[in-house]
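A reminder from the course coordinator: this example appears on the midterm review sheet, so study it carefully.

Given structure:
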């Protein structure tokens, strides 16, 4: 069938923005309407940019976690609200529809976009779009809520057994074990517990980024400090695989205005990824450099490498280069997606390079440099008392309660463990308890209700209440704070952090 007369003109100046993309999002054709809204010329986009790159960070994550899977499974996306970034950085709310079509051996996506704020010109289109989108939006909201609830519940159920395992590991590390096989088993268990804990946290982090709920705690930090922490966390993993790690750091400190924990998390994920795909006896190198106004660090390895056709999708959610049954070492496919999300939240970029299968990989991260902070005069710290404390541990997981009691008793504290809320209130009324480590998910009386009753009693008003729980979402932290808890620790409890809290509680008011 010959093209309709004037089709090109109709396409170029349609009332909505129109794009034709490859399945990887690369823009193949774009009309004048879209270019006007986005502030780009067509030649700046065609075959040079991917559609997700024109979206806000939240939109890019949504594209990975929802849009791309829907296109793959059902071949269409209906009336999704996203923020398009104008060339000058302004967010422009849009409603987008997409459908996947096949023409011979070629597969491509047709995307139609309506600006959601130009009500005069597009009032009718928006009304129709909203009506068509209602059921789809409700499904997305419901599915998002179920996903969040599932991930939170999964994390809680996994953290439960991880807590006593981490406590017992702490006990074993403090014992003088002569048998080399037992030391090997202890260290192996430690690495695996750390790996499972990282996977649980990665699942929750990527969900927070997708929902726009992750908040960075920005402060001046030296990139080298984050690298030092990441190397310390991953050294046991590489030592077990007999991999050689070398560092080549810039002579000058590279200062960032960043979240120390998140930057460290990025480096840890890249190092773990390198170790996972590097055979025993291989090498891993990490280096830093100044590149104009950016600080860069690279992680290189002598591992299995990446095929060229996979480089463009390596940072997408659940991306796996090989089918699950063919992978000797794999994962959930979220580590690199989390890396990209955290780097972009900091205003940086991450890219991957490889010469191909068997030729190793390189991941490069660039983050904006910041001015070095002026150092304050040293302040003399008041000495912290270290006398034993009377601690009540309340947890219905008997293994978790008893193992934590043993750890703290070895620190010199007087500990007692009980396993329900009624027993906790009885113990507090009968003895001089100074600190209560309280699980939230108790049978009968919940930990929140126990905390409220403790705070309303004469004996419990001055007690230090610390929530030790598998529930770690923001709403859980807010609920524990409103119930009277002083602190909220997520299982498996970070024992150094707990010790700091116990020591800090001794400093005079």
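Designed residues:
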């Amino acid at each position: 069938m010959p093209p309709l007369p004037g089709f090109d003109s109709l396409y170029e100046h349609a009332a909505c923005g129109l794009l034709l993309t490859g399945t990887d999002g690369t823009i193949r054709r774009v009309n004048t309407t879209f270019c006007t809204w986005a502030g780009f010329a067509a030649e700046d986009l065609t075959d040079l940019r991917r559609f997700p790159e024109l979206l806000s960070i939240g939109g890019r994550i949504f594209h990975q976690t929802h849009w791309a899977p829907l296109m793959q499974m059902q071949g269409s996306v209906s009336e999704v609200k996203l923020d398009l970034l104008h060339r000058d950085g302004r967010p422009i709310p849009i409603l987008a529809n997409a459908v996947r079509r096949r023409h011979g051996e070629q597969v491509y996506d047709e995307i139609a976009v309506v600006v959601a704020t130009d009500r005069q010109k597009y009032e009718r289109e928006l009304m129709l779009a909203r009506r068509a989108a209602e059921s789809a939006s409700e499904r997305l909201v419901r599915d998002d809520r179920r996903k969040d609830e599932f991930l939170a519940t999964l994390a809680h159920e996994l953290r439960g057994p991880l807590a006593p395992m981490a406590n017992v590991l702490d006990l074993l590390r403090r014992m003088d074990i002569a048998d080399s096989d037992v030391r090997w088993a202890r260290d192996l268990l430690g690495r695996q517990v750390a790996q499972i804990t990282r996977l649980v946290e990665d699942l929750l982090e990527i969900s927070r980024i997708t929902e726009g709920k992750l908040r960075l705690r920005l402060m001046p930090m030296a990139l080298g400090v984050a690298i030092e922490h990441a190397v310390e966390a991953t050294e046991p993993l590489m030592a077990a695989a007999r991999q050689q790690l070398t560092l080549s750091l810039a002579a000058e400190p590279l200062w960032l205005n960043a979240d120390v924990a998140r930057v460290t998390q990025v480096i840890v994920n890249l190092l773990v990824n390198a170790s996972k795909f590097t055979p025993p006896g291989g090498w891993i190198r990490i280096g830093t450099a100044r590149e104009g106004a950016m600080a860069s660090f690279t992680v290189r390895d002598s591992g299995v490498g990446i095929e060229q056709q996979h480089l463009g999708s390596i940072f997408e959610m659940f991306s796996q280069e090989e089918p699950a049954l063919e992978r000797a070492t794999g994962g959930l496919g979220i580590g690199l997606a989390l890396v990209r999300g955290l780097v972009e939240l900091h205003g940086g970029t991450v890219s991957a390079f490889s010469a191909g299968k068997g030729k190793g990989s390189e991941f490069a991260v660039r983050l904006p440099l910041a001015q070095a902070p002026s150092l304050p005069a040293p302040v003399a710290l008041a000495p912290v008392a270290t006398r034993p404390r009377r601690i009540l541990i309340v947890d219905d997981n008997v293994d978790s309660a008893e193992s934590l009691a043993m750890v703290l008793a070895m620190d010199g504290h007087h500990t007692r463990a009980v396993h329900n809320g009624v027993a906790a209130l009885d113990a507090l009324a009968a003895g001089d308890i100074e600190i209560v480590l309280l699980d939230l998910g108790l049978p009968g009386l919940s930990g929140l209700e126990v905390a409220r009753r403790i705070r309303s009693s004469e004996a419990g008003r001055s007690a230090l209440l610390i929530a030790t729980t598998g529930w770690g979402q923001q709403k859980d932290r807010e609920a524990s704070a409103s119930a009277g808890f002083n602190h909220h620790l997520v299982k498996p409890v970070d024992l150094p952090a707990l010790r700091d809290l116990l020591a800090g509680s001794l400093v005079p008011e």
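The chain is about 45% helix and 20% strand. Confidence is low (pLDDT under 50) at residues 1-5, 118-122, 322-332, 379-385.
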